[in-house]
Amino acid sequence: MTHSVLVVEDEPNIVLSLKFVLKQAGFNVRVAEDGAQAITEIERDTPDAVLLDIMLPKRDGFSVCEAIRANPAWSAIKIIVLSARSREADKEKALAVGADDFITKPFSTRDLGNRVKSLIAAGAGEA
Amino acid sequence: MAGMKRAGRKTEWSVTLFCFGLLAFTPPIMTMFDRPVMVLGLPLMYLVMFGVWAAVILAIGVGARRSRLSDSADEAGLKDGEPW
Amino acid sequence: MVGWQVGLVSLAYLGLLFAIAYYGDKRAESGRSLTQNPYIYTLSIAVFCTSWTFYGSVGRAATTGLDFLPIYIGPTLVFVVWSVIWVKIIRICKVNRITSIADFISSRYGKSAILGGLVTVIAVIGITPYISLQLKSIAESFTIIVDYSNPRGAGGEGIFAFDTTLVVALVLAMFSILFGTRHIDASEHHEGLVSAIAFESIVKLFAFLAVGFFVTFGLHDGFTDLFGKAEAAGLSHLFTVAHDRGYGQWMTMTLLSMAAIICLPRQFYITAVENADEQHLRKAVWLFPLYLLVINVFVLPIALTGAMAFAGQDANADMYMLTVPIRHDQGALALFAFIGGLSAATSMVIVAAIALSTMVCNNLVMPLLLRWKIVDAGEGSDLSMLLLTIRRASIVLILILGYGYFRFASESYSLVTIGLVSFAAAAQFAPAIIGGIFWKGATYRGALVGLSMGFLVWIYTLLLPSFAQSGWLPISFIQQGPWGISLLRPYALFGLEGFDHLSHALFWSMLANIGCYALVSLRFAAGTLERIQAALFVDVFLHTEGMRDSWTQDGSATVGDLEELVGRFVGKQRATSAFHTFARDQGVTLRRNQTADRALLNHVERLLAGAVGSATARVMVGSVVKGGIVGLDDMYQILDETSQAIQYSRMLEAKSNELEDTTKQLQAANERLKELDSLKDDFLSTISHELRTPLTSIRAFTEILSNEAGVTAQERRHFMAVIAKESERLTRLIDQILDLAKMEAGQLDWSMAGVDLRGAVDEALGAMDGLVKERAIRLEVDVPAHLPMVRADRDRLVQVVINLLSNAVKFCRSPGGLIQVRAAPAADGLLVSITDNGDGIRAEDRDRIFEKFHQLYRGSAAQPSGTGLGLAICRQIVSFFGGEIWVENRDGGGACFSFTLPYDRVQEVVGRVGAMT
Known about the structure:
The complex is a heterotrimer of chains A (127), B (84) and C (917).
Chain A lengths: L3 E5 L3 H13 L3 E5 L2 H10 L4 E5 L7 H10 L7 E6 L4 H9 L4 E4 L4 H18 L1
Parallel strand pairs in A: 1-2, 1-3, 3-4, 4-5
Helix pairs in contact in A: 2-3
Chain B lengths: L1 H23 L13 E2 L2 E2 H20 L2 H4 L3 H8 L4
Antiparallel strand pairs in B: 1-2
Chain C lengths: L2 H27 L8 H8 L5 H14 L5 H11 L5 H11 L4 H8 L4 H37 L4 H4 L1 H22 L10 H29 L3 H10 L15 H16 L1 H9 L6 H18 L1 H11 L10 H8 L3 H41 L12 H25 L6 H12 L2 H10 L5 H26 L6 H4 L21 H23 L4 H11 L1 H4 L15 H12 L1 H15 L11 H15 L1 H11 L7 H76 L5 H33 L6 E4 L1 H18 L3 E5 L7 E4 H18 L6 E9 L2 E7 L34 H12 L3 E5 L5 E7 L3 H12 L1
Parallel strand pairs in C: 2-4
Antiparallel strand pairs in C: 1-3, 4-5, 5-7, 6-7
Helix pairs in contact in C: 1-9, 1-10, 2-10, 2-14, 3-15, 3-17, 4-12, 4-14, 6-7, 7-9, 7-17, 7-18, 7-19, 7-21, 9-17, 9-18, 10-14, 10-15, 10-17, 11-15, 12-13, 12-19, 13-17, 15-16, 16-17, 17-18, 18-26, 21-23, 24-30, 26-27, 26-28, 28-29, 30-31, 31-34, 32-33, 33-34
């Protein structure tokens, strides 16, 4: 079974790299370019995990994260926050609003793939 | 408070004038003119004494003009009302 | 002229005076006061010029020259500082209803009856010689005018020789009684008296000037002729002050006369108590000195003329005013001069007698009568008659004293010497008065001891020796000292020799007076009432409308009681009308059996103070307010402590306000710091974000490529291109951040010069050429070739144009993009605009886009790939050039970025010059 990952990111080149890495790792990858689009995409088809940038146009990552957590139907979605801001405060805030992991840009592609995999696996184990 | 300033100037004016008068009418300044000498047919000391006197009176008059200190007599007192 | 004729003229003159006084009183009663103008006030102050001025100055000038002048220069100097001294004294008198100098001093030092009595005694004893001087001058002038007019000397040996002075004294006593004690005044001034005194000042001035003109222009050919002749007659030693003597006496006389113009009871009375309006001072302060100057101009000419006319004869120089006209057969002029002298003398005697009698009555007799319970303020008898009687008797007594001094002591003295003895006595008041209005720390004990000591020294060094010289005391008292103790010789006390008698006396008396005044004041604390009074006097301008020492204890006095009390002193009718006025002013109805409130009690005290002085008034009101006077000191204690507490709490309040302010400032500073800190944090965090974004792509693709696996050749090329592009972006970003940081810190090196805009735009266009062509954007450039030069750094200007162009390229419509570049001269610089045909910028974003890292997301499709710093840098550069940058939307959509560039002034000037040649 192929797990699906939604990449929410506005920087085209980062999206490109993420798509490549995740596809190589065997995920089905979809992309949303801003916060609003992200919600629409999730509504259309609930992904197993969301890679979420914080600095997004229209609706920031924290808000998207809260929206996902507010919907019980989406509680299984694993959320990994990607941030170019490395402040502790941001990490704490992300975890507080319901993120499962926090990855700072620039990231290691291998590490990223592993983390997504292990999170989804853990979720499946629980289920 | 603007009146205060005016009053201050007035008090300074009168005190300055007082010091000037005191200096002019006391030794050693006055003794310089105190000689039995005639100037323009008049005694020198007579001329000097009355001349300076008239000048002082003129200066008092100038200092006491209403326009300059309209109603500041009160404030003058206020200013001077502080203990020594 | 015979004696009775002169006597008749004199009486007629006095009758005229009385008529004027009567008329003045009537006018005042009908509300058309004569004294409500500064000129009458000035003339009344000229009561300072007595027969001493009229006769004595001439006498002194004829013997010692110009040294009569300090008597008039001293007062002039005091009037120089009128705003410091007179305004204050007058205000105090008005506020506190002061009736005399004794009242003033007693009131200042805790309303002390003892001090008031002492001042009265000193004044009476001190002024007696002065009054006798006037009597002497009238008598002498009378004798001379009768003697000279009547060769047979009818008046010489007969009754007049003995009696003239006594008759004069009695007549003057009568007139003083008529003028000053017709009724007891609770509130109004003696308008009639003041009018009469002013008239007398006119008479004496004109009389003096008449004689002066006669000797100068009648007998001589003007001033130069007169002085020339005098010099020829060997009188040039009179042209000086003290050519061959010391200046000690000059200084002493200046100081004495300065004190006298304030401290002589009659001067204090006329200047301060009778002042109708403080504004009158404004004119009087220079008119009065002018009066003094004018009346003195002819003193020396008359003296010289007399000295020349009576050279070698034994003539009394004091009487040259009369003898010179008589010698030249000017009988009428001599009579006029006599009347002038009479006016000078009578004005002084009348005012002095009235001022002194008020003091004797209010500050000496009444307190004693009350203390010995001879008079009980609580009884129902009418006391206004008693007051009048006391005053009238005092006037008679004072004049008799003056006459007595004249009979027994004044024969051996000249007019001026007698006057100076009085001046020295009056000067004893100066420390208590001047100290009292400026120094809050001056106390009752200080004033009492100072005054007593000064007065005793005055008696010892001036009065007793004058008795000795008159034969009342053995002359050895002066020569060897009492009991032969030479250290105690009154003219050389403690061996102090080398001074004239007056300077010597003034030195010792003032040393004792001021020394004791200051030391005792400092040593012993003031009582509560004293402290209150001290504050009321020193801070009179603060307290004028404010708190007065008031009757806080309402007590049980009824309105009827009080009206009766006032009625007994000022007369029933006046009391009733005063109460009516009070009720009307306060807007209340007063019923006789109603308990008097505090305001009424204070009012009554002030009413009574006008009649009997403040100290007595307080005691009397206290005697009516049962229980009111008991515990009064406690009350003052409370008042005093309260005021201290208030002062303390004010200080605390000020301190705490200060603290609060400081705290606020600290808070504000703290907020600002926090703000700055978070700004810095945000900035750093934003920069970090901006740097990490390209870095993320670079690292990700680098890792992807280094794995090799699963990357097609095409992907590899694509990824390599991305890495290159992101690296470029990173480099540009770092450059711009550094640029901006340097600009903001002012560390960037600018090479400002005249720049041709066209060239700069062309260069920028060239740099953007590839991009524009690639996107098939239409470019419209309208930049004229010969625009004036602008002052700028060329490279930075190109950078601005490139930044704006790249923005335009990024946001213009695609396809069908259009960019317009325009430049046109404006008033204070060139206006450059770069317009695209994109979506435009929302109004709320127009300012913010010039901020750092503010990127716009215009729809999801068009992603900005800029650094977010371009416009911020443009703004920095344009501002540095002295221009402005802003953005507007075009009507058909699209953003229009405009900026101005100031002209290069050097070029401008050169250009103009070039155009002219």
